[in-house]
Amino acid sequence: MIKSATSLSQKFDVHVFNRNRRNEFDFKTHSLHIPFKTGFLFYLFLNVNSLLKLLFKKTDIILAVDLDTIPATYIASKLKRVPIVYDAHEYYVESPELDQRQFVKSFWARIANFFLPKIKHNYTVCQSLVDILSKQYKQKYQLIINAPRKYHLPSTTDSKEKIILYQGVLNIGRGLEEMIEALLYIEGFKFHIAGDGDIKKVLMKLTEDLTLNDRVIFLGKLNPEELKLVTNEAWLGINLLDGSNKNYFYSLANKHLDYIQHELPSLSMDFPEYRRINEEYEVSILMKDLNPKAIASSIQELNNHPEKYQKLVSNCRKAKEIYSWENQEKELISFFENIS
């Protein structure tokens, strides 16, 4: 969101409504006072507060980021008679957090089915979601990839320690348990986990039970500059997901593109978006099976063939020129300039 708002500020007067007001950006921010952190009341207050703010703010275009902001933004756009744009960052109704909560999932599905067919200006983050959302809601979705800004890798002559890196939220279905267990089958590798989330304590307990405390390092939540330094030190990135969840299966994870920008080969799943990139620029080893022995075997195979590893690095160097925000922001600005 920060990248999009900053880019749009080049051409528009951008105002962002969020929970935590920060003023160091090129755009203006406005606080939403929400006394709840989760649950129905959180979303109720989010939409009521957003609606009230929008009604009393001069606007020419309203941008809704993800489905949970749609009720307020859509109603405001109709009352103010201004266009609404929907930014679909993910396949929201199929997110793993909703899989075990059928009532909540059906609620958001009804929200999507009611509002989204009425919105004609839409974009999303990968081709799979362009195809799915366009078909499901009978509206056109444009592709604007949430790529990172170009990153110039600092030159170094030091050989890398065999550090395997995960960056992101620690949630179920992200292959973290399997990656920890994979260390039992390979020697000489460490696994660094940058991030925080619901299953952190579970992962720490698993690490202790397997006596891998000296090889699994929990770095916690890092700021962007710290994360860049950590990524520079890694030998391999991982982006392992449970394909039984549609949101994961059709995803193009930010971390995958971050690895490319850092010229870091990765271990990813053989899902549509990662396969699509690999067919053009082979930057990853694609996994068909998410199990510890298969993960360990793929890592060891790559380690045994340094020429293969260097080829992946070279391909990342080519791909990073294409998968950068500098390219995508041109599409974003053009998209908004053509809204009428």
Short description:
With 340 residues, the chain is of the alpha/beta class.
Structure, described:
- This protein has 340 residues and is an alpha/beta fold.
- The chain has two domains: 2-146 and 325-337, Glycogen Phosphorylase B (Rossmann fold); 163-322, Rossmann fold (3-Layer(aba) Sandwich).
- Helix content is 44%, strand content 15%.
- A six-stranded parallel sheet has the order 9-8-7-10-11-12, with helices on both faces.
- Helix 6 (176-182) packs across helix 12.
- The mean pLDDT is 93.
Instruction: State the oligomer.
Output: single chain
How many domains? 2
Largest sheet: 6 strands, parallel
What share of residues is helical?
40-55%
| Molecular shape | globular
Mean pLDDT: 93
What structural class do helix, strand and pairing data support? alpha/beta
Q: Which topology of the largest domain does CATH recognise?
A: Rossmann fold
Distance between the termini: 23 Å
Low-confidence stretches: none
Assigned CATH class of the largest domain:
Alpha Beta
Radius of gyration: 21 Å
Number of strands: 12
Q: So, CATH architecture of the largest domain?
A: 3-Layer(aba) Sandwich
Give the number of helices: 14
Strand content: 5-15%
- The CATH superfamily of the largest domain appears as Glycogen Phosphorylase B
Could you give the order of the helices and strands?
Answer: HEEHEHEHEHEEHEHEHEHHEHEHHH
Question: Strand order of the main beta sheet, please?
Answer: 9-8-7-10-11-12
